[in-house]
Amino acid sequence: MIGGDDMRKLLIISVLIVSVFALQGCMSIGKAVYDVARDNYQAKKSNNASSAYRKSGIQNASVAQTTYVTKVKKAQKILGLKVDGIFGGRTVGAIRYWQRKNGFLPNGNLDSFLNQIGN
Fold first, then answer.
1. Are the beta carbons of 46 and 107 closer than 8 angstroms?
2. Which of 1, 77, 96, 111 lies 20 to 30 Å (CA to CA) from residue 66?
3. Higher pLDDT residue, 12 or 58?
4. Mean pLDDT score across all residues of the chain
């Protein structure tokens, strides 16, 4: 038979174990939320950089934009998406999914993706 002090110790240990598991669960959820926020930030940063590049006043801007659209279409074809040349949310999401599935940093960056697949 377990005495009063032993029962109290067992109860305290049980509460501590449950608390540790609960804390680990919260940390996992927190990390998942952080990962999603980081991925969204990096994709937005990538989209802004690409947009700024396309809108800048560089010489041969139409050639640069045509090259960019060609890269987007190539990625969309590889990923099995509708090929429209628009680097939008579906393309970024598909790139991130592919990167995550293949062990790369899921940043959604077009050039990183094309380099990772060897193109």
1. yes
2. 96
3. 12
4. 74
Q: Which residues contact 86 (CB under 8 A, 6 or more apart)?
A: 72
Note whether 72 and 80 are within 8 A (CB). Answer: no
Question: Could you read off the pLDDT of 30-67 as tens digits, one per residue?
Answer: 555 556 666 666 666 665 555 555 554 544 556 666 78
CA separation, residue 55 to residues 28, 67, 88, 110 (Å) = 40, 14, 17, 17
Tell me which DSSP letter residue 95 carries: H
- Distance CA(97)–CA(107), nearest Å, equals 10
Q: Closest Cα to residue 88, out of 58, 51, 36?
A: 51
Chain CA centroid to CA 32, Å: 10
